[in-house]
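Please fill in the sequence for the structure shown.

STRUCTURE ENCODING:
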């Protein structure tokens, strides 16, 4: 099973990815493209530039398209970086080859979207660049449901907008074979 978690920075994606990996036998966490590229010597600006986001989109597409590992929890997807590009004024549909995106998202069994909620803002530590964070969150939600690139419409989506302490259980419930099915779900 291959699961990916998308969401703005400071929303608990890595924590959820690690918890899912620990509960799903044989699964590993695939680190987010920012860290993968950094390990390869890529130097990011702060905040990242459009070029930086495009590099992360490409790295994320490569990660998803890689057949190994077959049991993985991905910390971020290309959708994250397209949302950051949109939040900074770029048109996401001009940033990437839609057919490559389609092939990448086709490898996923579930796309989990972690969103900003009043609870997350109260409980989670304050994140850097709060304006960018909020704009990315809004752009992500618009992209995931509008799918202007026709790239992830066949990927089951779970939007986590409920209590933070229910995220793991909610995701595991959706991953049960009898519960899994296409189309967006909000919990």
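FILLED IN BY: designer on duty
SEQUENCE:
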């Amino acid at each position: 099973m291959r699961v990916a978690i998308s969401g703005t920075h400071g929303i608990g994606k890595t924590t959820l990815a690690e918890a899912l990996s620990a509960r799903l036998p044989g699964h590993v966490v695939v680190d987010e493209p920012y860290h993968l590229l950094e390990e390869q010597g890529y130097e990011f600006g702060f905040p990242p530039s459009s070029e930086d986001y495009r590099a992360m989109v490409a790295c994320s597409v490569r990660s998803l398209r890689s057949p190994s590992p077959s049991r993985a929890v991905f910390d971020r997807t290309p959708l994250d970086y397209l949302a950051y590009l949109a939040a900074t004024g770029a048109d996401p549909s001009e940033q990437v080859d839609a057919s490559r995106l389609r092939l990448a998202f086709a490898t996923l069994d579930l796309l989990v979207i972690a969103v900003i909620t009043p609870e997350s803002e109260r409980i989670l530590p304050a994140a850097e660049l709060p304006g960018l964070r909020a704009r990315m969150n809004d752009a992500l939600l618009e992209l995931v449901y509008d799918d202007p690139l026709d790239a992830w419409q066949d990927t089951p989506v779970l939007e986590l907008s409920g209590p933070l302490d229910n995220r793991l259980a909610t995701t595991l419930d959706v991953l049960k074979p009898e519960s899994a099915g296409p189309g967006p779900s909000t919990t």
